[in-house]
Amino acid sequence: MSLDQKFEKIFKKVDELKPQFIDVLAKAIEIPAVSSDESLRPMVVKKAHFLADQLKSLGFSDIQLRELGTQPPPVNDPKLQLPPVVLARYGNDPAKKTVLVYGHYDVQPAAKEDGWDSEPFTLVVDEEKQLLKGRGSTDDTGPLTGWLHVVRSHQEAGIEFPVNLITCFEGMEESGSLGLDDLIAVEADKYFKDVDTVCISDNYWLGTKKPVLTYGLRGCNYYQVTINGPHADLHSGVFGGIIAEPMIDLVQVMGTLVDSQGKIKIEGIEEMVAPVTEKEHEIYEKIDFSVEELNAASGSNTSLYKKKEDILMHRWRFPSLSIHGVEGAFAGQGAKTVIPAKVVGKFSIRTVPDIDSEKLTKIVVEHCEREFAKLNSPNTCKAELIHDGNYWVSDPFNASFTAAAKATKVVYGVEPDLTREGGSIPITLSFEEKLKTNVMLLPMGRGDDGAHSINEKLDISNFVNGIKIMSAYLHYYAESPEK
Ligand SMILES: C[C@H](N)C(=O)N[C@@H](Cc1c[nH]cn1)C(=O)O
Ligand SMILES: [Zn+2]
Ligand SMILES: [Zn+2]
Question: How far is ligand 1, taken at its centre, from the CA of residue 257, in Å?
Answer without folding.
Answer: 21
